[in-house]
Amino acid sequence: MTDMTAALTESQLKSVEQALEELDLAALTAALRPLSAVQIVALLGRSDRRQRAVLYRVLPKDQALEVFERLDPSLQSDLVGGLQDDTVAALFADLDPDDRVELLDELPATVAARLLRGLPARERDLTAGMLGYPHAAIGRRMSPEFVSVRATMTAAQALSRVSERLGDAETIYTLPVVEDERVLVGVVSLRRLLAAAPETAVGDVMSEPHWARATESAEAAARRCADLKVLALPVVDNETRLVGILTVDDALRILESAESEDQARIAGTEPLRRPYLTASVVSLVRSRVVWLLVLAIGATLTVQVLEVFESTLAEVVTLALFVPLLIGTGGNTGNQAATTVTRALALGDVGPRDLGKVLLRELRVGLALGLLLGALAYTVTSLIYQPAIGAVIGLTLVSLCTMAAAVGGAMPLIARAVRVDPAVFSNPFISTFVDATGLLIYFLIAKAVLGI
């Protein structure tokens, strides 16, 4: 959204805002006329619900549908509430089935049911079939509108079929090849069909298919589509019968949404699922307050550790000066490891089965970091205070970095193994855990080295 807003000049923004403020529809229409659909989406993302409805109503009909399809489902839902029923019904019917399902998930049940009843029978059946899949499954995000060809067809027959279905197909550049009962046996690109002799059998030019099962995670299927660098990925049922297709643009949207969700949870918040400027203050507070309460309760562990070692701090007051440095370094080390492994999990580079390998690698990385930081801390602290204090700080950093890196690397894998979002166990929880255990390590080393 930031990039899209950046494409708007200050004068364009000012013209639109002034027309909205004065409710001058003629001036608003003139201000919107030179803008692209992407720029208008950016404007809608900056506007409140009333302004959004006004902006949308002055758009030309052909541009209105393109803009609506580009909006986040949450904004589509808001817009539906501000439009007349006949306008909403027409928009809803013109949407692709996968976009329609996303919007239905955002709408109140009564509104969703009314819109479904108003659809033509074919569109209603396509949409209802997708709604039958689990919420996070790729079957709910695929397109059921595709062109398939048979292996026994000639290239000329296949191209003729593509030509007949141009109007209602999601994509024609990658074509699934099926046998009886829609069983997937291959894929063929439009380029290959055009290059082949007219009498060539499709089976002779098709490739081995990569596919996704309709019930598997949408994120996993989208990741596979992106990794394979294919324009479309067939989606099949449990009997390998073709039920839909995932296009690369839909795959990228799924991955962008998953990335935003992971980043929010890594930072200790819940994802907003809508542009920032359209989110209410209440929703912003709600997305953050639960995590802050959980982490505040977790932080009492740190307080309890300090209370246990209160007498140690009283004997060597200098030790208190290094508490922020040590818990900050430990938390940052753990967070770096967790972020790296969480990203590797998302990319499919590692999985729960690699826990041992990741743990060993992060132990070595943590030890190396600890030795570097510990040696530096020992030198500086010994010069300013005394060698004994320097030894405590140096040894603590070695132990703390090793422990924090191991915990940070292992927690996302353990979370995935128990079917919990790895991002939930990333930075906030790891920081809290490392703070408490780091202080425990610090004071135990201090007692042993200083004899207190």
TrEMBL record:
Compartments where found: Cell membrane; Membrane
Pfam families, alphabetized: CBS, MgtE, MgtE_N
Coiled-coil ranges (or none): none
Topology in the lipid bilayer: Multi-pass membrane protein
Keyword hit for Aminoacyl-tRNA synthetase: no
GO molecular function, one term: metal ion binding
InterPro entries: CBS_dom, CBS_dom_sf, Mg_transptr_MgtE_intracell_dom, MgtE_N_sf, MgtE_transporter, SLC41_membr_dom, SLC41_membr_dom_sf
CC per GO annotation: plasma membrane
TM region(s), chain numbering: 289-309, 365-385, 392-417, 429-450
Keywords: Cell membrane, Magnesium, Membrane, Metal-binding, Transmembrane, Transmembrane helix, Transport
Top-rank taxon, per record: Bacteria
Transmembrane helix is among the record's keywords: yes
Gene3D superfamilies: CBS-domain, MgtE N-terminal domain-like, SLC41 divalent cation transporters, integral membrane domain
Function summary: Acts as a magnesium transporter.
Family named by the database record: Belongs to the SLC41A transporter family.
Protein name: Magnesium transporter MgtE
